[in-house]
Every structure is written in structure tokens, then in C-alpha cells.
Write a structure and sequence with these properties.
heterodimer; A: alpha+beta; 4 helices; 12 strands; B: 163 residues; mainly alpha
Chain lengths: 286, 163
Amino acid sequence: MNLDETRERIRWAMFAFLAGLSLVLLVMDNTGNVDTLFEFVRDPMGRVLAVTARGSDPLIDAISGPRNLREAQHEIERLQAQVNSLARENEELREIQGQYQVLRDLFQTARQTPEYRRVVANVTGRDTSPARQSILIDKGRRDGVHVGQTVESARGLVGMVYRAWEQSAQVILISDNASEVPARLSNSRATGLVRGGGLGRPMSIEWVSLDARIEVGEVVLTSGIGGMFPPNMTIGRVIQVDRREAELHQRAVVQPAVDFNALETVFVIVNFEALDAAIFDPANTP
Amino acid sequence: MISSLYVAVPLLATLALLQSAVLSRLPLGGLQILLLVVIARAMMEGMPEGLLWAFVGGIWLDLLSLSPVGGTSLAYMSTVVAIVLVQRNLPQSPLVLPLLLAPLGTAVYFFVSLSILSLLGFPVNWQATGVTPALLGHTIAILPLYWLMMSLRRLWRPRRVEI
């Protein structure tokens, strides 16, 4: 056996060893067996990420936006906040209008928007995987943030806390491929399931009954069904309806209310108790 | 090779943080600096070194991602293997080689990464993965990065000359 063959064998043996190690980690992480171990690394990394994100803000602004003009920047931020507030108010008004038409006698009750306790968090990082959509925020268990809590922005629903560490957390966005949010339409009152489309693909509301007349421009809200998200939170707006008589259900393309690429600050609702799905597990029934 | 691990671990951690906190917010078409560094390293140093950097870099990136830890390492290592195998049959030009291998490596990375997620049961939309801008961006960005890394290597390990 010559030297070249030995080297070649060493190369492939190394590949096999590292690939095997990756596979073991992959399986263990996918089954949730190493979360505690990785938390020791993820939490400090989350904190470093927060510092990095804050430190790089001037650079990002300089590259992404107009140069200098600090006052203009403040003005833009103020106007953006105003636009967000007005857009939200507008969507709330549309929601109230829909309820008034369908449930006139419950109008007064429906107008009362439930008040939630919110923790403000800054977005410190984004998922760079080509198939996953998540963000990292600078608030964690120390601030009352826990897995399963709802995350929203000034314009609507953002996602759900997927992992929570001591001082940071990871949020799965509603635009992620794996995300499913029980929803209903503001005017037709039909219910469905909003699915994330993934990178570059729009979200859609599916499993809507054929009886419902979905209108373009209709606001899509959380239904609260399933108990995972609070009801009546804005998800987005219908931009295209896909109705085929041959099928049992119809679907519609939804434009999210939130611009996930421009997210800088989010609110974590910390006093909404998500339903514990474990009670439906047959193993837990007496 | 072990000594390069001391450089690789902190350097790749820094790049993972940079990629997640800074580059992802810039309009750079999904530029993955970590993948480019792994590709350049594999081109310069060969398979064992490239595999080591791919493994470490992938782990760091997965710690900041929703993807299960190890998936990106596997995708990066597959990229390294593909690059080294193809590199042997190409002219060893410092201009042509990176321009050919960067898009190849990017394509392999996306394919393997998405396949792994798909196999693990994550819904994957193959038509919307951002591969096209990444292919373009990586083809442009690899040359300055490759030359920078070559220059750093020359500074770090000057060629021995007998007088």
C-alpha cells in the first residue's frame, strides 16, 4: 500500500468519523436530547449576538439607508411608527365592521380587545438556513419569556417562542414552512389554517369551507382555536383566492401584516396561557 | 491540522455571529460568509482541513438556527468532498478555480441541507430557497475572499526558500 492510498484512506476515514458525529448530533438534537447541553453555548451566544447587533446598527443604517441625516432617520422612525399604528387601527376597524355585520348583538363584547402584558424585545439575529424562518431576541426566561408564548409586532402576529434561554430566545416566524396558525377571516367569519410559505413564498389560509365567500382585501385574524394563540390578532390580508368547485375546501394567499425582514422590535405576550395539548394525549386520560 | 482547530473554532464562531447578526440584515442576497470560508479553505488546504472547518462552522451556525445541530455540518462536509473531488480534475488557476467551485459548492450545500431537513420531516419548499441570488453572490464574493485567505496564509506560513 503506497503513501497516496494511505492518505486517501485517512481522508475518507475522517469524513466518515465527522459525518457520523454530525448524524449523532442531528438525531439527538432532533429528538430534544441535547437541549440542556447546547443551552450553555446558545445563551452566551445570544448575548454576544445582541451586542453585535447593537454595535452594527450604525453600519447597517449606513449601508441600507441614506447616509448620515440623523434627523431624517428619527423622522422616518416616527412616521413609520405612526403608519404602523394607523394600519393596525385600520385593521381593527375592519375587524369591528365584520363583527358588526355578522354578530350585531355581540358587537359591544367583541369591541373589547383583551389586554395582554407584553415584554418588549429587540431582534438580535436571523436564521440563515435556506429553509427555516426564525429570529433571535434579547429577552429570555429572566424576563418571563417561555416556550410557546406569542410574539407580535406593532402590525400583527410575528410567531411563537420556540426556544427560551436565560437572557435570549428563539422565535419561529409564522412565515416558516412548519408554522400553522388557526385563523379566521374578518368579514366572512370562515375559519382555516394559515400556513407559512417559507423563504420568498407567500403564506396561505387553507381548509376554508367552500360555502365561505372570501374577498380579496379581507383581513385574516387568529381564531384562538386550539388555544395556542390569543384570538383576534392580525395575521395579514387576503390578496388572492383559489377556489375550485371540484375540491372540498378553498384556499387563499395571505400577505402578512408584518414585514419580517424589517423587524427590529417585537412584543412577547407573557400572560397568555397557551393550552396544554398534553391533556388530549390518550396516555394522560384516566 | 489540530493546531488550525485553535484558529477555526473562534474564527468560525465570530463569522457565524457576523452572518446571523449583521450580514442577514444587509441586502446581500443571502450571502453566506461561513460557507465561502469553508469552500476557500478546502480549495487551499484539501479535504481533511476542509472537513474540520466544515464540521466546526456548521455546528456554530446550527446553534443560532432552528435547524437541528449537525445538519449544516453534514451539508458543509458534503460541499467540501464535492469541491475536492472536482478540483483534482480542473486547471489549478487561482482565478478560474474559485469561480467554478464556489457555485458548485453553493449548489451542493443547498441540495444537501434541504434534503436533510426534508428527511427529518421539516416541510421544505424547493422552489423558494434563495439559491439563485446565493449562487450569484457567492460567485462574486469568492474571489476577494479566496485571495485574502491566500495572502493571510502566505503571511502565516511563508514559503521556505533555500539559498
